[in-house]
Amino acid sequence: NLVVFNASTTIPKSVTDVTSFEIKRNIEQYIHQSSVPHIILRPIVYMDNLAAPWSIPNIIHQRVVAYPLPSETKISWISLNDAAAFAVEALKRPELA
Questions:
Q1: pTM here?
Q2: What residues form DSSP beta bridges with 6?
Q3: Over the stretch 70-84, which tens digit does the pLDDT of each residue have?
Q4: For residue 3, what are the β-bridge partners?
Q5: CA neighbours closer than 13 Å in the CB half-sphere of residue 49
Q6: Alpha-carbon gap, residue 2 to 89, rounded angstroms
Q7: Whole-number Å distance between alpha carbons of 31 and 76
Q8: Whole-number Å distance between alpha carbons of 29 and 31
């Protein structure tokens, strides 16, 4: 058996008041404490978010591609399809657990 968990984001080192981060932190802690072999994926930002409803208006009407992160933040973009492919490949490689 192998669990591959995609947290869909990085998780801050310190506890936050952001429910979505804390739920994922709790899931990861639960997985780590279990005896089940596991691989946890933490993609940084999905490039598909640029086509999301909150991004499209600025791109179309203001010709601005913006993302709500500080300008000094370094990020690696990944597509949803590539993230899914990584998860599928992780399931095929239990030795990475």
A1: 0.79
A2: 41
A3: 888 888 899 999 999
A4: 38
A5: 15
A6: 12
A7: 25
A8: 5
